[in-house]
Amino acid sequence: MADYKVPVRDMRFVLNEVLNIDEHFQKLGLEEVDAELVNTFIDEGAKFSENELAPLNRSGDEEGCGFNNGEVTTPKGFKEAYSKYVEGGWPAMGGSEAFGGQGMPGVAGIAISEMTGTANWSWSMYPGLSHGAIATIEEHGTEQQQNTYLPPLISGEWTGTMCLTESHCGSDLGLLKSKAEPNADGSYSISGTKIFISAGEHDMASNIIHIVLARLPGAPEGTKGISLFIVPKFNVSDDGTLGERNGVTCGSIEHKMGIKASATCVMNFDGAKGYLIGPENRGLNCMFTFMNFARIGTAIQGVAHAEMGFQGGLSYAKDRLAMRALSGPKNANGPADPIIVHPDVRRMLLTAKAFAEGGRLMVYWASMLGDMVKLGKTEEERKDADELMAFITPIAKAFLTEAGLEAANHGVQIYGGHGFIREWGMEQNVRDARISTLYEGTTGIQSLDLLGRKVLQTQGAALRKFTKIMHNFCETHADDEAMKPFVEPLVKLNKEWGDMTMAIGMKAMQNPENVGAASVDYLMYSGYVTMGYLWALMAKTAQDKLAAGEGDEAFYKAKISTANFYFKRLLPRTASHKLCLEGGLECLMELDEAHFAF
Predict the structure, then answer these.
(1) Does some domain include residue 448?
(2) Which one from 440, 550, 582, 593 is the annotated catalytic residue?
């Protein structure tokens, strides 16, 4: 199995050279945070990820989680690694200083999230699920709730979950049936069953704080009648000590295709004591205040699996000997050439590399926008960042996870038959990647969100906010000869994107089902164009560094070569997606339901 090496150089390139995080921190007024500090975090995080987490990835997959009478045990080494993670202060990086956190902006910790996730995605989900609970309580909790729950959540002593899904409703939360009955002491009795709850039960922390959606008596039907509650595994006394076990138990854990070392639980709430967070019947509104951040966290998974597919495929392609290059032997002293000389193997490697590195910039940039939403100095700055982040989020979540799955599959293909065998780790990468296109909203749901809510419902304003950025970039570099291979295609696509959107909008006015018919191809088209802009940005940065004679010449030349590959072999996929969405609604609906038979 290939050893994971954190791509420290590329992370620093993205953060320091492309995004210029020092300028970002200054704009936010964060005088004590700079690139040097973030680089230190990256170095230390790389040691932890490579030495503590990566060695547990395969063994955790082999062992899986244990379940016995409601108790979940994580694989060997997971609990110990988590203790070291807490001791190192990693969970507290982004937490509020008022509650024991380090107050670091999101972009400062994004590389840590990527590297822990790539090293061991299953393990990373246990601390990762706490972010949603922390964000919810920070934004909507009472002062007492914040003082009670935030310090141990931020320190990592406790972990958190989000309990949304029920067996009869997945993404359609308006159908949920869990109930919340008021108690005399101001608390509520929560009853119902939630499924697919990641890290809902485990042995790594002393308490688990569940954020639960449920209905109050007499609440309106649908999404307008949902409230949000804090439900601890162990009740918490006024002095912060743990009391008796609450009425929440794990009924079972799922037997899954991948991420087997992450406990995916059925959680039963039997009159569990809970506490209302936020206003009554406004639970979904409270939840969506941090949903963009949660979906960016899932987008990281696409980057992680693309990176692992690339690294694993590259190490094998350099060593594996098979056939001769068609142009003549490249390894004259050996019986055959290493397969990396073959164009088709390079196609797969470069696809994975382009998705990993382009996706890294997309996620890190989105995280910067998240910082602006939280910490921007003016209302206008915060609003502008929020609107742009809202547009980018469904693209990042859906496009990057689809791209990550493709790259993971390329990792298997490069190995040939060996890729299908467990010892190499590539088949696990595919199995672990598969869930990423499903949770936090499937690709179809994200596509409807992008085209329906973010684009058409804003009369294209959200799209224009981003295409204006692309337009300004292209206009600035229109006379730069070295940038023409990147600028000219982007100019064409920028116009086409707007024209295509208008055409879909006209069809949607005739029949709204046209939105659903076009949505996935529209999102994938949007993803390729967005990543094209980001690759052009990286190419320009690399060109400037080479012109100035700064830094690692080989690194910058590789960056430009990968950008060329992306523009010539991946960006043209936009044409296919455009033709598909123009194929329209009729061919999808003309077959009568009764004829869907086998």
Answers:
(1) no
(2) 440
